[in-house]
Amino acid sequence: MPSFCPPSEASSPVPTPLFSVPSTPETERDDCFDEPAALAAEDAQFVLVTGGLGYIGSHTTLELLKAGYNVIVVDNLSNSFHHVFDRILMAAKLHFDRVGGRCPRVELACIDFRDRAAMAALLAAHAVSSLDLDLGQDQDQAHPQGRSNITGVIHFAAYKEVHDSLRNPLKYYQNNITGLVDLLGLLDQYDIKTFIFSSSANVYGTLAHDHGTLREEHCVHQPTTYRDADGHEVVSEQGCTGITNPYGRTKFFGEAILADLALSDPSWTIIGLRYFNPIGCDPSGLLGEDPRGVPSNLVPVVMQVLTGQLAELSVYGSDWGTPDGTAIRDFIHVSDVARGHTAALAAAHEQRVLSTFRTFNLGTGSGHSVAEVVSAMENVTQQPIPRRIADRRPGDVASCVAIADRAAAELGWRAEKTLQDACRDLWNYLRFNPTEFCLS
Ligand SMILES: NC(=O)c1ccc[n+]([C@@H]2O[C@H](COP(=O)([O-])OP(=O)(O)OC[C@H]3O[C@@H](n4cnc5c(N)ncnc54)[C@H](O)[C@@H]3O)[C@@H](O)[C@H]2O)c1
Q1: At what angle do helices 370-381 and 419-432 cross, to 10 degrees?
Q2: 175 close to ligand 1 (CB < 6 Angstrom)
Q3: Quick one: which of 126, 251, 302, 393 could link to 200 by a disulfide (CB 3.0–4.6 Å)?
Q4: Closest Cα partner for 135 from 125, 126, 124, 144?
Q5: Which PANTHER family does this entry report, sorted A to Z (predicted)?
Q6: Which CATH superfamily is domain 26-281+330-365+402-419 in?
């Protein structure tokens, strides 16, 4: 069994992968900057990605580059590492070497998105004069800071640990809510009004107890009428039922704030993407889930058991009333989640979104139990994963699975990858990063 190695700052430098690594394409990168540099190409358009070095953000940045978007990443490294930026560039270069074409531009700003002065400087560096946009004087008065070449924002940056949020609720409300409100005000000044928000299946709270499979209308911010699976008309009132922790509440409140904003000003296009349980990583083995601190999600803990950093996995409850007794979740490959963002952005830019605020589940539509995930990982790795049964955790539910039909119908997006794909890619990531994870 490999020896213990804490996943700390010491793991930050880019480890030596087991395959040939392309050199960083210097012409296409800008180094991390505190003072945003003036743009070289005035007419280029960008997508701003907050939290773009985190687990889902890094995969989404890569998918955006593959789809041809120029990207500005904002991250304060509170739960990620600077080397992730180099990994994104390497993975993008591998992609464009394979398929041909030129990698779009990507910039990194290592700033806190709540730092108003730093964000204002970044947005000012991307402001486009009214002359360039051929706007009238009225437009300038409506947007005192001018217009922008940033055509949309994907907002991942947030704190996300359920149990930490129970201990430190104000920390969560400050970053996830106060930060969001201030960011929206700043974006408004630059007329940046396409906004994609990282929401969560957490907004359904204990509704999962009643429904098992969850559709967007189960949690709404305006009264909504829909037909259920039996064709009966159902009226869904706004509000939420049984959200069990401050983290989940920040996602519900965040959505509610965005819904109110979109209602008050229909020039916004706002999409809330409700992720179910993202797992896996990019098949290149260059990107993965590498949080600072102690992880609590199933897969990062399984990874720590596989690398010997943890002796065993705690399985919370084996009496859930599911076929094997362990809880069922909708595990979705993170690259599918990432592609959900490019699909949402395209729909927003092409004005195909049915309302100014719209939510979409990003899930596969089918569930796997915790025991199934562990055994799938054991099959791929050919290593036993020691586990013990622990008590159920407060707030957990037996089953939480998405109905993902809305995203398929309106965004043209479906999850494509399987649980086995996710396990194989995770194992690649572990093997390609031996120094980071202490595999020998
Ligand atoms: N991973 C999941 O299972 C999951 C499920 C549902 C929703 N979400 C949401 O998706 C988003 C991304 O999740 P993730 O798993 O990639 O998390 P992550 O922690 O890996 O990524 C978040 C990134 O945001 C950065 N960040 C945090 N606060 C910041 C700030 N104030 N300024 C600048 N950067 C900041 C962190 O350094 C990190 O790189 C979060 O909003 C999370 O709540 C995640």
Answers
A1: 50
A2: yes
A3: 251
A4: 144
A5: UDP-GLUCOSE 4-EPIMERASE, UDP-GLUCOSE 4-EPIMERASE (EUROFUNG)
A6: NAD(P)-binding Rossmann-like Domain (3.40.50.720)
Which residue is associated with the tokens 């005000």?
A: 185
DSSP element (H, E) containing 426:
helix 419-432
Sign of CA dihedral 50, 245, 218, 222: negative
Look up residue 388 and give its two tokens: 């013990």
The two beta strands, 127-128 and 224-227, are: unpaired
- Residue 297 has what DSSP assignment? S
The HSE-up count of residue 396 (CA atoms within 13 Å, CB side) is: 19
- Give the DSSP per-residue string, 301-321: HHHHHHTTSSS-EEEE-S-SS
Q: Distance (Å, rounded) from C-alpha 140 to C-alpha 48?
A: 22
Looking at ligand 1, which residue's alpha carbon is closest to its atom 38? 54
Residue 112 in contact with ligand 1 by CB distance below 6 A: yes
Tokens of 429: 């990531």
In this structure, are residues 369 and 331 in contact, taking their beta carbons and an 8 Å threshold? no
Question: What pLDDT, on a 0 to 100 scale, did the predictor assign at position 145?
Answer: 67
pTM: 0.89
- Residues 212, 398: Cα–Cα separation, whole Å: 8
- A 10 A CB-CB count for 313 gives 19
Q: Is the CB of 292 inside a 6 Å radius of any atom of ligand 1?
A: no
Q: Which residues of the chain have pLDDT under 70?
A: 1-42, 129-146, 434-440
Alpha helices in 307-358 (DSSP H): 334-349
Backbone angles phi, psi at 213, to 5 degrees: -100, 140
Q: Pseudo-torsion of CA 136, 139, 144, 147, nearest 10°?
A: -90
Q: Which tokens is 186 given?
A: 């700043």
Number of C-beta neighbours around residue 202 at 10 A: 25
Among candidate residues 282, 274, 266, the one with its CA nearest the CA of residue 354: 266
Q: Which of 351, 339, 356 is nearest to 151 (CA)?
A: 351
CA of 323 to the centre of ligand 1 (A): 33
Q: Rounded distance, CA 359 to CA 170, Å?
A: 26
Q: Whose CA is nearest to atom 9 of ligand 1?
A: 198
69 tagged catalytic: no
Which secondary structure element, helix H or strand E, spans residue 401, and what is its range? strand 399-402
Distance CA 133, CA 127 (A): 11
**183 ligand 1 Cβ < 6 A:** no
pLDDT at residue 434, rounded to an integer: 62
Query: How far is Cα 176 from Cα 170, in angstroms, rounded to an integer?
Result: 10
- Which two three-digit tokens encode residue 378? 């054991």
